[in-house]
Amino acid sequence: MDKCDNTPVHGTKVPFDPGWNDPPQFSYSAQQTTPNRPRNFLNKRVAFPLSGTGSTPVSSPPANLPPMPVPMVPAVPTLSTQIISRNESELIEIDSASTLKEVKDILLRFIDSGDLGSKGNEVKKRINVMENMWLNGKLNKSIQLQMKELAYALRDDQPARADEIHKSLMVDHVSSVSIWMSGVKQLIYHCIARIELLDIDKQESEKCDTE
Q1: What share of residues in the chain are helix, strand, coil (percent, to 5)?
Q2: Which fold has domain 96-209?
Q3: Which of 63, 71, 103, 121 is the most buried (most CB within 10 A)?
Q4: CB 170 within 8 A of CB 114
C-alpha cells in the first residue's frame, strides 16, 4: 500500500476543509509592499527650542490704520486774557497801595480830559468811595486785581474787555462794588463813544482823500 504524502503543495488549493483550530492560510504572493515609504510617527515628540532666537514671525500692524492723535497741550492763559478768579488771586502777591494809585490815576485821566461834562464830578465821587473802601481793607485781592485789569483795558481802548470785567465784578462781588461801580461804568460808556467817534472821523477823512 502506497504511502500518501499529505504535504500541501504551494499554490494549490487544499483538498480538504481546515479544522476549527488550524492556522489560517496566507497567500504571501498576493501581498505587495511599497518600498521606501516613509513611516508616519504620530507619537514622535518635538523638541522645544532652548534659545530665544526662534523663527517666530512678528506680526506687523495694519498699514491702513490712521495715525495716532498727538495730544494738544492747552496754552496757559495770561492775566491780560483772562478774568482772575477769587482762588487764583489768593496765590498772587500784589502791592495794594501801588495798585490803587495806578488804578486811580488811569480812571481820573478820563475825568480830567473834560469829555464827561457834568457827569465828571459824580464819577469822581464814586472813585473816591472806591479808594476809601480799598484803603480800609473792604476790597479783597480779587477785586483789586480785576480793577487793575479793567483800568488797563480802558487805557488800551478795549472797552469790551473792560465791560466783561465790570460784569464779572457785579456778579461775584456785588455787595462790595455796587456802591461805586456806576462811576466806572460811565467811564466804559465814555470809552465806547470815544472809539466810535474816532472811527467816524477816520472814515470821513478817508472819504475826503479819495475825492
Answers
A1: 50, 0, 50
A2: RNA Binding Protein, Prp18; Chain A (1.20.940)
A3: 103
A4: no
Closest CA to 127 of 149, 153, 151: 151
pTM tops 0.70: no
Q: How many CA atoms, within 13 angstroms, populate the side-chain half-sphere of residue 184?
A: 32
CB neighbourhood size of 47 (10 A)? 5
CA 208 – CA 198 distance, rounded (Å): 15
- Residue that wins the pLDDT comparison between 127 and 55: 127
Instruction: Determine how many CB atoms are found less than 10 A away from the CB of residue 46.
Output: 5
Contact indicator for 154, 162 with CB cutoff of 8 Å: yes
Domain boundaries, the chain: 96-209
Kindly indicate the confidence band of residue 65, based on its pLDDT and cuts at 50, 70 and 90: low
* C-alpha R_g of the chain: 53
Task: Tell me the torsion sign for CA atoms 157, 189, 129, 150.
Answer: negative
Supply the DSSP string of 137-191, one letter for each residue: T-S-HHHHHHHHHHHHHHHTT-HHHHHHHHHHHHHHSHHHHTTTHHHHHHHHHHH
Residue 72 CB coordination number (10 Å)? 6
